[in-house]
Amino acid sequence: MGRGKKHKLSESFVGGNVVNPRGSKNAKTQEPAALQAADVYFEEGGLQRVHPYYHRFATHAKGRWVGRTIFDVFTQEFRDRPKEYYAKSIEKGVIEINNQTVAKDTVVRNGDLVTHFIHRHEPPITTEDIGIVRETEDGLLAINKPGSIPVHPTGRYNYNTVTKLLEVKHGYRALFPINRLDRLTSGLMLVGLNPTVARRLERELIEHRIQKEYVCKVQGEFPAGKVVCNQPIRVVAHKLALNCVDFSEGKPSLTEFERLYSEDGFSIVYCRPKTGRTHQIRVHLQFLGFPIANDPLYNNVE
């Protein structure tokens, strides 16, 4: 099937502010109005929530999408919604290719721009604010990230993220996170306020001149003394960011552990990752038989 007509829906809405996500001829010269926190966030049930809004996801076709139908791409790559939803969305024209409506059997081509208009409801997060620990004159920002908050807009999260909260609630504009913590992880984060500082600190991380340290609560009585896990880690599912130990195809990984305390079937463990694989500490602790107590991914019997 060929491409259809351009869809009329072309606006995003947040807290009463309407913007055109497709831009305009003067888009590069227009400075967007700063969002006010009250327009975006509200508290309910002890959690911070975001007012629902219309949003346009847009991305160029991934290599693995090329040659597949648009229906197959959405049902297989974005499984947070049922197949019936995507069928209706394609039929209604809220899923487009190159700003044109399509049919379910339209094949995705290399270079295609795939868009999806949705009414977005973000998951809630803690009401605990991001703590500003220190800001240096050369552009280094140290923050205390609470648990439950993702660092970057990803998946169902956009405004309930560290970068957006720093922008909307604290007034920062250009942000370059140096070390990234998982959504459920709390602790110190370094953020560059300019590219120069960001590049310098990223280089120091790569050269191991900055050491990352974590404290975890794990399930079980962790062994006393120093425990080293050097099992290689492989990505199982990119979309889910799911990883596992794989002796044949995994990448070299090394983490040092030391038990600090143990009681009632749980242990507090000090962790020092020597390599930087995604979910490295979580995967190694699972492999050792002591998964993090509240880990929904690596301590899930399902």
Write the layout of secondary structure elements.
Elements: E1 12-14, E2 17-19, H1 37-40, E3 41-44, E4 47-50, E5 53-60, H2 70-77, H3 83-92, E6 95-97, E7 100-101, E8 113-120, E9 131-135, E10 140-145, H4 162-170, E11 176-177, E12 187-192, H5 195-206, E13 214-219, E14 226-229, E15 233-237, E16 242-245, E17 255-263, E18 266-273, H6 280-288
Antiparallel strand pairs: 1-2, 3-4, 5-8, 6-7, 6-8, 9-10, 10-12, 11-12, 13-18, 14-17, 15-16, 17-18
Helix content: 10-25%
Distance between the termini: 40 Å
Mean pLDDT: 88
Strand/helix succession: EEHEEEHHEEEEEHEEHEEEEEEH
Secondary structure: number of strands: 18
Overall geometric form: globular
Which radius of gyration do the C-alpha atoms yield?
22 Å
How large is the count of helical segments?
6
Arrangement of strands in the largest sheet: 5-8-6-7
Oligomeric form:
single chain
Structural class based on helices, strands and sheet pairing: alpha+beta
Question: Segments where pLDDT lies below 50 for 5+ residues?
Answer: 4-32
Q: Per DSSP, what share of the residues sits in E-state strands of 2 or more residues?
A: 25-35%
Biggest β-sheet: count, sense, barrel?
4 strands, antiparallel
What key phrases describe this protein's structure?
302 residues, alpha+beta, 4-stranded antiparallel sheet, 6 helices, 18 strands, 17% helix, 30% strand, globular
